[in-house]
Amino acid sequence: MAGLFRLVFEGTLQALASAIVQMELLAKAIKTNDLQSANRVIELTELRPQIEIVDVSRPIVMEAALARAEGLEVADSIVLATGTVAECDVTITNDKRWRNAVDRLSRRPLTARGERFLDRPPVLCLDEYAD
What span, in angstroms and rounded, lies between the C-alpha atoms of 25 and 19? Predict the structure, then answer.
């Protein structure tokens, strides 16, 4: 993750994350009463122009319903759908199940934007690239 964030902060990559990711990170810090971590999450997600936090919209909900139908959890479905609707180049995760869900989704005829088929970004699993 450190290398990935270095590229983001250098401006080589643009990062986009669902508000659900922000919620999950804050919830963990709040649960453990870790104010320092909560402040770091807010600094990272609210005060850094290199990272865009995307609110959950109706198109994201519609796309997330497709991912949820493929067995992903609600939060994972929303995160995956956010990247699809925002037309990201790649979705980065540590969960290999996302790749299988995207493969199954590519065979579904339904879309979140009317008649237009959405291109689902490929899934990159970080643990496959870690040393």
Answer: 10
Q: Is the dihedral of CA 64, 65, 69, 74 positive or negative?
A: positive
- DSSP class of residue 103 equals H
DSSP assignment of 86-126 equals: TT-S-EEES-THHHHHHHHHTT----SBTTBPPPPPPEEEG
CA-CA-CA-CA dihedral for 52, 58, 61, 63, to nearest 10: -90
The pLDDT tens digits along the chain (131 residues) read 778 888 888 988 889 999 999 999 999 999 999 999 999 999 989 998 899 999 999 999 998 998 898 889 999 999 999 999 999 998 888 888 888 887 887 766 555 455 556 678 888 887 776 55
DSSP type of residue 34 = -
Instruction: Find residue 19's DSSP bridge partners.
Output: none
Q: What share of the chain is helix, strand, coil (3-state, %, to 5)?
A: 55, 10, 35
The vertex-63 CA angle with 1 and 24, nearest 5°, equals 40
